[in-house]
Amino acid sequence: MAKTNLKHYVEFFYPGAFMSESSTQEVTSRDALQVDAPKDCFGYRFFDRQEIVAEDGEVLMGSPKNHSGIHYFGEVKTLEDIKNERPDPTGCLERNMESNGWNKVVKTRRGNYQPFREQDILVSKK
């Protein structure tokens, strides 16, 4: 008979050329205090996945589900903060915030900006 397990994972995010890169590892708990985040990541989130171990030992993995908000290392900025603090002749970040309806972004410890949603969490400024 096949055995079903619910597994927990943490996904770490890194700056990429066009999109964020990520790495994933299994964890025993979704407790943020238990996460040993790599120094070069700018944030992480948890998710769960159902895994079925067949009688022959083959592992069938379900789709990731139950994603947490992203836990960021950085500083939260409002649109007003960005307009006042960041001299940007193109206004690209400001336009992206306005057109996408982002009230806040986080300037990560890696220097990139990410949308900061209601379910996201600021872990620290470093």
Structure description:
By secondary structure, the chain is mainly beta. The chain folds into two domains: 3-71, no CATH class; 74-117, no CATH class. The protein has helices spanning 79-85, 92-100, and strands at residues 3-14, 21-27, 43-53, 59-61, 71-78, 104-108, 113-115, 121-124. Strand 3 (43-53) and strand 4 (59-61) form a beta hairpin. The relative contact order is 0.20. The model has no long low-confidence stretch (mean pLDDT 92).
Name the overall outline: elongated
- Provide the β-strand percentage band: 35-45%
- Counting DSSP E segments of at least 2 residues, the number of strands comes to 8
Residue runs with pLDDT of under 50 for 5 or more positions: none
Say what oligomer this is: single chain
Succession of helices and strands = EEEEEHHEEE
Characterize the biggest β-sheet: 8 strands, mixed
The total count of helices amounts to 2
Distance between the termini: 48 Å
Roughly how much helix do the residues carry, as a percent range? Answer: 10-25%
Estimate the mean pLDDT confidence: 92
Count of spatially separate domains: 2
* Backbone CA Rg: 18 Å
Class derived from helix and strand content: mainly beta
State the gist of this model:
With 126 residues, the chain is mainly beta.
Structure characteristics:
126 residues, mainly beta, 2 domains, eight-stranded mixed sheet, elongated
